[in-house]
Design goal:
Distance between the termini: 25 Å
Protein name: ATP-binding cassette domain-containing protein
CATH architecture of the largest domain: 3-Layer(aba) Sandwich
GO biological process, one term: L-amino acid transport
InterPro entries: AAA+_ATPase, ABC_transporter-like_ATP-bd, BCAA_Transport_ATP-bd_LivF, P-loop_NTPase
Low-confidence stretches: 44-50
Largest sheet: 5 strands, mixed
Helix content: 25-40%
Organism: Tectimicrobiota bacterium
Strand order of the largest sheet: 4-5-1-6-7
Order of helices and strands: EHEEHEHEHEEHHH
Oligomer: single chain
Number of strands: 7
CATH superfamily of the largest domain: P-loop containing nucleotide triphosphate hydrolases
GO molecular function, one term: ATP hydrolysis activity
């Protein structure tokens, strides 16, 4: 019997009133992470260690659902920009930012569009092959050379650079 370990020790913190981005390429484990923490993940074989969301010291699944909706405790968005025109993407992230600023809504965004997500996020986690390989404040991530290279599409010289073998090797060390 073969088991597939999809997520490997992923642990996230979404502070109250924060926007946290869960970033990574297609297949990195973003949606699976959201399903796990929302208790929506079912395994056909093997074991799923269920996650939970804790709000003010209490597990969110133990709180009154109507209270959660009224307060807008945390909104979980999975790829809100997927397949949309840039103008619509900007609009969606403007709405996220307004809800955050005006209503104090916390967000956990799973997103491939690193530029858009880090523009509004306070903090970010980068997933590769089901594990967190890098995390930090949004400003710090935007300035990180690896993030610029692999997710923002610019290298140290300001050019598109995925084709350069030495940079591929640098990314490969994340996966080791």
């Amino acid at each position: 019997m073969a088991y597939l370990l999809v997520l490997k020790g992923v642990s996230l913190t979404v502070p109250e009133g924060a926007i946290v981005a869960l970033l990574g390429a297609n297949g990195a484990g973003k949606t699976t992470t959201l399903k796990a923490i929302s208790n929506l993940l079912q395994a056909e074989r093997g074991e799923v260690t269920k996650g939970s969301i804790v709000y003010r010291g209490e597990r969110i699944d133990r709180l009154n659902p109507s209270l959660l909706v009224r307060r807008g405790v945390i909104q979980v968005l999975d790829e809100p920009s997927m397949g949309l025109a840039p103008q619509l993407v900007a609009e969606i992230f403007d709405i996220v930012q307004r809800l955050h600023q005006d209503e104090g809504v916390s967000f956990l965004l799973a997103e491939q569009n690193t530029t858009a997500a880090l523009r509004v996020a306070d903090y970010g986690y980068i997933l590769e092959n089901g594990r967190v390989v890098l995390d930090g404040g949004a400003d710090t991530l935007r300035q990180n050379e690896d993030v610029k290279e692999f997710y923002l599409g610019i290298g140290m010289t300001g050019r598109r650079s995925y084709r350069d073998v030495k940079h591929y090797r640098r990314r490969k060390r994340w996966l080791a």
